[in-house]
């Protein structure tokens, strides 16, 4: 049993965590935790191993630091999987906690709130929201498809996270692979009846990466019957695939036609604006700030896969934490050399001079001339600034490419443009835009 002092200490730890973590992280990982005192330490109850791993990966260090801070360094922290008990004393009903109603591994971080909507995914997003509002009523089945890393799994976990707040809804979430493996096991142990029963009792069945079952005859057969049984009694079915039903080769025709019964929605790769918004949101979740140029660099180079974009951000964040340096263009180019190598190599001072001359309507040769009138000197300074930002050239090298100027002239130009960017928002936007067009 937890005594009052202990409970208030635990509350202290929670309060510390609330102050130190971004609210989304706190809500996702800390809020659902249950803690119990044991002889040598503290037991943390989590809904699943999946949750434990996520908690540790996402904010394990801060979590343990706060617990040790409050309870002392010697205390041991044990994680255990158990259905969280009824929360807080004031809850008199035996309402089940959200996590207990979902059978399957759902990531609590994937919510509608955390999903950035743009033209590439607004239809899929709206469809998923409609299904989460009225499961079994609006679109059944909902079939979501699109390329790798575009947010399909995020959206269906969001449905599940939202539905799990409602009472009396049983959700089963499976990947096509796991569904198939379970079935094979059931066949092996002659327990297919139980297998069937289990799925037919749920209110919402979600199968992620359903393409996995195509070509597997017995799985398709079983799924077909489960599908019909659930659909007949208006239970919601949600299917996700990397391709649309027509392109699922080896899919039995009768199953394909059923997939088309409800709503088929696709997700396309996000445009630049959406990629920038996703990046900003992920950075905020991670509790870091990204400056505009670095965001542009990432979002303009990593275009087809949000997971890769996130991966780049994670790498930068880790590097910045390890070296205790803030993230800037130099670091980004360095750390993400492999992901971005095309950029780093492809932009030359010559490209920059041409582009900037063109933008300001002067002849490229003026970049190297002696003229010092403002309409020429200013674009030249911008081009020097960009050369330092976008190439690996040293200051003397840049100077010599601008008609044999001294490296201090380049340094001066860089500082001047930098200062002007800080002061003038419109100019800052203009430079970001130019940097971006040079990248692309
Ligand atoms: P898929 O299942 O389509 O392969 P995921 O749903 O696993 O892709 O998405 C990969 C990563 O990208 C996840 O971390 C997810 O949160 C993120 N992601 C994708 N699209 C968006 C979006 N529009 N807004 C926020 N995060 C997104
Ligand atoms: Mg997925």
Question: Care to give the gist of this entry?
Answer:
The protein is an alpha/beta fold and 440 residues long.
What structural keywords apply?
440 residues; alpha/beta; GMP Synthetase, Chain A, domain 3; Rossmann fold; Helicase, Ruva Protein, domain 3; 4 domains; 6-stranded parallel β-sheet; 3-stranded mixed β-sheet; 19 helices; 10% strand; binds adenosine-5'-diphosphate; binds magnesium ion
Helix and strand layout, with pairings?
Layout: H1 4-20, H2 23-30, E1 34-38, E2 41-46, H3 49-71, E3 76-81, E4 102-103, H4 122-133, E5 142-146, H5 152-163, E6 171-175, H6 176-188, H7 192-200, E7 204-208, H8 217-232, E8 236-241, H9 253-259, E9 263-267, H10 272-285, H11 292-301, H12 306-323, H13 329-335, H14 337-346, H15 349-360, H16 374-390, H17 395-401, H18 407-423, H19 425-439
Parallel strand pairs: 2-3, 4-6, 5-8, 5-9, 6-7, 7-8
Antiparallel strand pairs: 1-2
The protein binds adenosine-5'-diphosphate (ADP) and magnesium ion (MG).
Magnesium ion binds at residues 152-153, 208.
